[in-house]
Write a structure and sequence with these properties.
43% helix; 5 helices; 0% strand; mainly alpha; binds iron/sulfur cluster; binds zinc ion; 143 residues
């Protein structure tokens, strides 16, 4: 689905080659940095999209930055960001609860008469499909 801001992107209205040719890199930067009204949105989107992209695969001028510049910015941001630790299970007896998005969590919601969240409802529907298809509710190991 297109995001609303993408409709306002300058690069939609110009020849996309401008953003991907060395010869026009300066022009592309100027359009992004001086004329595009959605540069901020574009920058956050591309950094997120490229989070797992090898630096050498970051192509084109996007949000006014070359691939190398985006890689550098991403690296400097992640160096500053606090490392997220996985949340420790709350203290208390018993097994840790299954997280939402699993069939056991779905059943727990029902048992506790809690509203069933969307993730759990989806997980339950998936395992129903799985059961009908294979006769087992065991989800096969990740493919
Ligand atoms: S900032 Fe992003 S959306 Fe705007 S012209 Fe540049 S690449 Fe396109
Ligand atoms: Zn849930």
């Amino acid at each position: 689905m297109e995001r609303e801001w993408e409709l306002r992107a300058i690069c939609r209205r110009e020849d996309p080659e401008v953003w991907f040719s060395r010869r026009t890199a300066a022009r592309a930067k100027q359009l992004c940095l001086k004329e595009c009204p959605v540069r901020e949105e574009c920058l956050e989107a591309i950094l997120a999209r490229e989070a797992k992209t090898a630096n050498s695969m970051r192509a084109g001028i996007i949000a006014g930055l070359t691939g190398a510049e985006r890689a550098k910015l991403a690296a400097s941001r992640s160096a500053k960001a606090p490392v997220k630790k996985p949340q420790a299970a709350p203290p208390g007896p018993g097994r840790p609860q299954a997280p939402c998005g699993t069939r056991s969590a779905y059943q727990r919601h029902l048992r506790k008469k809690e509203p069933v969240c969307a993730a759990c409802r989806a997980a339950n529907a998936r395992s129903g499909v799985q059961y009908r298809r294979t006769g087992s509710s065991q989800v096969p190991a990740a493919r």
